[in-house]
Amino acid sequence: xxxxYDMPLWRPPxxxxxxxxxxxxxxSFNRCSFCSMYRTKSFVIRPLAQVxxxxxxxxRLDPAPRRVFLADGDALAAPTGHLLEILGALxxxxxxxxxxxxxxLPANLLKKSADELRCLRDNGxxxxxxxxxxxxxxxxxxxxxxxTPEAMVTGLGKAKAAxxxxxxxxxxxxxxxxxxxxxxxxxxxxxxxxxLDYLSTLQLMIDPxxxxxxxxxxxEPFQPQDDRALLAEQVRLIERLDPPAPLVFRxxxxxxxxALAGTLPQDRDAxxxxxQLALDGGLRLRPEWLRGY
Length: 293
Known about the structure:
The chain is of the alpha/beta class. Helix content is 36%, strand content 17%.
């Protein structure tokens, strides 16, 4: 291995061919009750010299990487000046660089000023992956997301105004049987207020190590949705999405029972037809043993 990564290492599916550069380790929030990704790590902003050395090591590859993903889960928590140094080093060392991306927490977009986000965009950070999870205010409290719908709309609007591309995710099944309508309706209402570029769905999968915590913070017995109910959530979501700009919609993450792809609103009818076909048994769902994060 060219780089001695601090494991575990996570990245979005679309960054499979990217150079993963750990600008930070872990997650500065790390309290979402559904997420086990960084529970074994303490949050650290890695020393600039270490990061720059790894960039130089990758620059000696033939061919050098064209895409970079800034890991771990919270690179944007680093000071803007620190990130600009990394972006500058990437640009100098990788002449064929086409894209730099990172995750973005709701707090990141609130703490960074509009000028800071615009400066990061102008210096090469062009794509943010953002977990909405749900737009329902009560559910955001129950999953300890650390954000409100209003705060997410504010932060996402700031990112879009800065020229950043935003790929957002929502988690089907997060409200269980009791709150699935509130979950979907709140999510659609939030998404309809921001001109996102991409929206993807995942299906709820709680790591065994977090099941007790998730149940405790949910504050009442959680009844998970079955596949048919999750398809109904997809139907309700697509019916209610009315984005202010064309929105690329995907449910092709490995956790999903049914892979969908289209652009809203123009492909709404086709997506709903596929979902109805699946509900009628005409499309085979991904077996549970093949699903995962």
